[in-house]
Amino acid sequence: MGDERPHYYGKHGTPQKYDPTFKGPIYNRGCTDIICCVFLLLAIVGYVAVGIIAWTHGDPRKVIYPTDSRGEFCGQKGTKNENKPYLFYFNIVKCASPLVLLEFQCPTPQICVEKCPDRYLTYLNARSSRDFEYYKQFCVPGFKNNKGVAEVLQDGDCPAVLIPSKPLARRCFPAIHAYKGVLMVGNETTYEDGHGSRKNITDLVEGAKKANGVLEARQLAMRIFEDYTVSWYWIIIGLVIAMAMSLLFIILLRFLAGIMVWVMIIMVILVLGYGIFHCYMEYSRLRGEAGSDVSLVDLGFQTDFRVYLHLRQTWLAFMIILSILEVIIILLLIFLRKRILIAIALIKEASRAVGYVMCSLLYPLVTFFLLCLCIAYWASTAVFLSTSNEAVYKIFDDSPCPFTAKTCNPETFPSSNESRQCPNARCQFAFYGGESGYHRALLGLQIFNAFMFFWLANFVLALGQVTLAGAFASYYWALRKPDDLPAFPLFSAFGRALRYHTGSLAFGALILAIVQIIRVILEYLDQRLKENKFAKCLMTCLKCCFWCLEKFIKFLNRNAYIMIAIYGTNFCTSARNAFFLLMRNIIRVAVLDKVTDFLFLLGKLLIVGSVGILAFFFFTHRIRIVQDTAPPLNYYWVPILTVIVGSYLIAHGFFSVYGMCVDTLFLCFLEDLERNDGSAERPYFMSSTLKKLLNKTNKKAAES
């Protein structure tokens, strides 16, 4: 036994030795991982440069405003189409063409108009009536009535027919409605196409569907927006209630953590016991029934799993499995009861630490603000990069033409060879693209944009973890709590992290960002290789492996940041020391991890469930006292889901602080056990509850 412990420590590092100068987080420290700090600064400079290039070439109006056949925006202020916010299709039936999916543009002339047409009119009828002035506003800009009817329609100067339309997503679509199951526009089930024949309304429906697939989504979005405008203050009240409940739960953990854990363990044992009893009763009930003694092997695989419930062997197998689980849990409870008590004591101690460093509960707001900046910069850069293409014009022709879908120049097209060979062809805007070196590099710039987002977001999270770890470590290593606690421990830890350890935080964030960008690329490749089953299987395995790797790196980084906050060592040294310290106490780590996971899960379910149920009864007008106060809604699930998601994020923010406190105190506790022995020269810094559990005492305290 005496030889095993040195061998064990040899495999997992050597225990920390006593240092008389160590009194908590080291203040006299130097800068760590400077090279990574320089790389981060250079990467940020490059990221800013990419943003400037994207903002110079990009134009978000391409996403916001519809574009006519000349590549001009509809409704954009400062342009000639400022008062023409809607896009009008000359012949929306052609939008049902497959070219819409290939070129993202309908093969029909499109112009910007002040308002959508509100009546039936054909060009032939309007030309010889008083409605011609009304009709001309739907012709191309600058149209002059100096051509024949056939020439005007052939050149695409005016639409052949106007159909009553309504604006949706800034585009004019036929005002189609159903009456007794029959599709109609106005009071008609057919319409004249302007060329002397009548067509069915269903042709318009197909064109409208292909032209814009967001019609119903647009209406849904508007109704959701209306719900938010009348319920936003009630949503805020619900989130404030969630915040108060989260704070109350953390305070109560100081007094109820032990009760919660033991009740949970007893409930699990009772549930398993009832399961064993129920399986035995079913096993006994099936005795003597026809067909119940057939073995599982003889029955084979059945798609209807209810068949297995009529076999005695099924219930016997369930009873054996549950009995084994019951025995394992009882044995673990017997042998690990002391470690469970230590975990409960650390959780209670964490509640006290949060109480003494109350400003730590506000730090998630700082992290949230910085993350919002990262997300905003990434999103805006991505939008500008995706809209930094140039307008591409292509040839469209209803009749067979060898130059169809070829690029063209709208200014020189009328006199070009293509126009002479295909008299009916038109050169119109197709999509945004480009062939220059910059345009070919856009995909790489988007990948760099995503990579920098992951790196900076992980850096912000790492900064928060080091800051909180430094503050809570100051609490633990204060011998007389809270008298020896330094002033403003959170701000001091934040300053130390930025001044000395920017490089180490960047190093840890870089490793995690590389894994995350690889996962994104794997997801992209997985979507592209859907037809290949072998590739699909390989991608699934790779995605699983990198998911596990990301989880492990997050765990390792978290504990490395705690060691950085305490000792000021570089990232690799801190990660190695933290890993070996945890490996030397692996059972304690496992027990504490599961106990805290349970308590946090219980807290989140309690908070989210309570606030969600309250929101449900309020917004569905089921609380009589405030029945008239609740606002009328299109969809009552909109504010309810918002409150539930917001409550979860708030609870997660509070518990992330608490979880960091527990992890920090746990590592400090393990260090305390290895460094000190309870003598007057080397007193324990742990709380009296922990010393009592471990039968440890400080001699000086005992003598007094």
Radius of gyration: 35 Å
The separation of the N and C termini measures 37 Å
Number of helices: 24
Indicate the structural class: mainly alpha
Strands in their spatial order, largest beta sheet: 1-2
Helix content: 55-70%
State mean pLDDT (0 to 100 scale).
79
Q: Which residues form runs of ≥5 with pLDDT under 50?
A: 1-10, 97-104, 209-215
Beta percentage is 5-15%
What does the main sheet amount to? 2 strands, antiparallel
Count the beta strands: 12
What global shape is seen? globular
Describe this structure in words.
The longest helix has 71 residues, at 215-285. α9 (215-285) crosses α22, α12 packs across α21 and α16 crosses α17. This protein has 24 helices and twelve strands. With 704 residues, the protein is mostly helical.
Report a brief summary of the structure.
By secondary structure, the chain is mainly alpha-helical.
